Amino acid sequence: MNYKIIACSLLLISINVKAQQSKIEQKVDSVLNLMTLQEKIGQLNQLNAGDVTGPEDKKNVNILEEIRKGKIGSLLNVKGAKITKELQQEAMKSRLKIPLFFGQDVIHGYRVIFPIPLAEAASWDLDAIKLSARVSAREASSSGIHWTFAPMVDIARDPRWGRVMEGAGEDPYLGSVIARARVLGFQGTSLGDLDAVMACAKHFAAYGAAIAGRDYNGVDMSKRQLWEVYLPPFKAALDAGAATFMNSFNTLNGIPATGNSYLQRDILKGNWGFKGFVVSDWDSIKEMVAHGYAKDLKEAAQMAITAGNDMDMESNAYEGHLAKLVKEGKVNIDHVNDAVKRILIKKFELGLFDNPYRFSDEKREKAELNSLANKAASREVAKKSIVMLKNETGILPISKATKTIALIGPLVKANQDMRGFWALSWGKDDIPLSLYEGVRNKLGNKTKLLYAKGCNINDSVTTGFRDAIETARNAEVVIMAVGETFDMTGEAKSKADIHIPGVQEQLVKAIIETGKPVIVLVMGGRPLIFNYTATNAKSILFTWWLGSQAGDAMADVLFGDYNPSGKLPITFPRSIGQIPIYYAQTHTGRPFEEGKSANYRSAYLDVSNSPQYAFGHGLSYTTFKYSDINLDKTEIALNDTIKISLKITNTGKYTGEEVVQLYIQDKVAQPVRPILELKDFQKIKLAPGETKQLVFYIEKEKLSFYNDDLKWIAQPGDFEVMLGSAADDIRLRNAFTLKD
Ligand code: GLC
């Protein structure tokens, strides 16, 4: 088809979209002109009407009455086609019949639970990650939900912080491409489609950098660090069309994000041109008083609306004080009008003014929730999220002909834990598959399964060891399952000690000492420390929390029906003392090299600088050879592109997937640059003996960074390009120069 036709049709589409947009804006203006100040403020007011997902704060509010008076614009934690329809009917009794928004934390699944987001990030499979969000949106939207408070895109480099489970790990590039995949998954082809929900990029911003990894703690960093590490995934979410943002509980350099106009007005709505709306986090407006930033709720309300916070989740600050503030001239009515317009535009875009009940369809809900297809999707994503940390003597995969297998450990028969944090509760008829059930499903009754719990997660006693050792002795192979409980990681779940709790590692030791072949599955929502196991177990899988189909997904990997392909999206420390530890470190003036003298070097006296497991680490049942790296030029001008090609060969006997990671190093720069930075990756599948040629491109964008004046620049000089299987497993290198 000739390019002129394409160009014209694209132009027509964009004109049409703009026309649609201005049509909606005209409608919004006409509604706005009818609204009283109180009705405007009602649209900025969001209350909880379901599960409590924050500090309990009893309000003697008659929600139905408030809805009928037009004093509530959105409810959170209400789920179900029936109840959302009933509540929407109450909203239709208000003077202007403005429909409600229903928001929910659909973080990794709605009815069918998917792996926790950090586990999905370990898949490095953007299609799988998008599928997870797509299925979640299909289920939630069939249940009357318009809006998910996801994706959480906070970069996290401190595993003491419990919400590390909710994001995509430590790296801005990986975090950005995953943020985009999740937004596209949630919002589908176009906002307003019946199977789509509004996404919400959160928590804006830098919440993951809480000092000491303690949740809600202050964040203090240079603007350069903010722009270079913590903002990119938010910009990626915005560029992917995220309809909403949520700000964060933390202060950033002394200013609470909720009252931070640098973040919300200068960057988000100004520099980035964000047209959606910003919701506070739970009570975060009120918390500006606790921060010592506002003297009372009224001042907090004034600060929040002025700084660009559009909707008030749960603190009733706007409902209680905004009208007075406007009348006293302390709040500019334009800020109120702008916030209301942003919200009403989204209500029009979702078609709620035309039909407020369009998402509350019980028939569709019944057909969609928990469908076999959705469960199959969850299993697909789960198996891709498993990371094989070690398989020294090839015990894995286990032969299905094995006669007797012992399953030992406190998480072998764990069901609810498989859901992970931020999984909605559906009561007794919604039980995730345990590891034990997955192995039983896989092997049927031809293999004898023995079981011993050995200990509880937090035990300090070893009374269960004897039985466990006996059980192990009666088996050909032992599968162990140790780790945390699901609620040891998540919101308000920071831990000063991230070792596997209790006597579990002693149990691993006792079982390894039986001399039986032992595979250890470590389960948790964050990087854990398990030094004994890491050193002495021959085979280790990190299985995170894998959701509804956890057991079957683990069995797929254990018995070779799926060759593990996961790679760590976050560094696993050897010691708590190393934290914060992440791969993109700078050289220092006294770089230390393992094996060399540490004298006057940047090193610890008592532990290596190296992590237990590096960013990007993950093994396969097969092996891959990297070869034939070629750069089509070794000198480029600022606007040139380098084409890098290489070959990957599967040199083992299993079909497998490899995540080929491309890192760069800017050898000399002001300010200094990390020793390596992830700039691209490709996940490929190869049959035994198969070779594929891959091509990557490097252009100025990938070489750029923020200088001290916050200018996004690429500095001429020498660069190294590295291709590898992990940050500490670089297979090929080459060099090039960026010319003036
Ligand atoms: C919580 C979380 C936020 C969530 C909100 C509503 O405190 O910080 O991520 O979306 O409240 O549940």
Secondary-structure topology with pairs:
Blueprint: H1 3-34, H2 37-43, E1 45-48, H3 63-68, E2 74-76, H4 81-91, E3 101-104, H5 117-121, H6 126-142, E4 147-148, H7 172-187, E5 200-204, H8 223-230, H9 232-239, E6 244-247, E7 251-252, E8 255-256, H10 261-271, E9 277-279, H11 287-290, H12 297-307, E10 312-313, H13 317-327, H14 333-349, H15 362-368, H16 372-385, E11 387-391, E12 404-408, H17 435-443, E13 448-452, H18 465-473, E14 477-483, H19 504-512, E15 518-523, H20 531-536, E16 539-542, H21 550-558, E17 624-631, E18 635-636, E19 641-650, E20 656-666, E21 677-686, E22 691-699, H22 700-703, E23 705-706, E24 712-713, E25 717-726, E26 729-738
Parallel strand pairs: 1-2, 1-10, 2-3, 3-4, 5-6, 6-9, 12-13, 12-14, 14-15, 15-16, 18-26
Antiparallel strand pairs: 7-8, 11-16, 17-19, 19-22, 20-21, 20-25, 23-24, 25-26
Helix pairs in contact: 1-14, 2-13, 6-7, 6-15, 6-16, 7-9, 12-13, 16-21, 17-21
Bound molecules: alpha-D-glucopyranose.
Alpha-D-glucopyranose (GLC) binds next to loops.
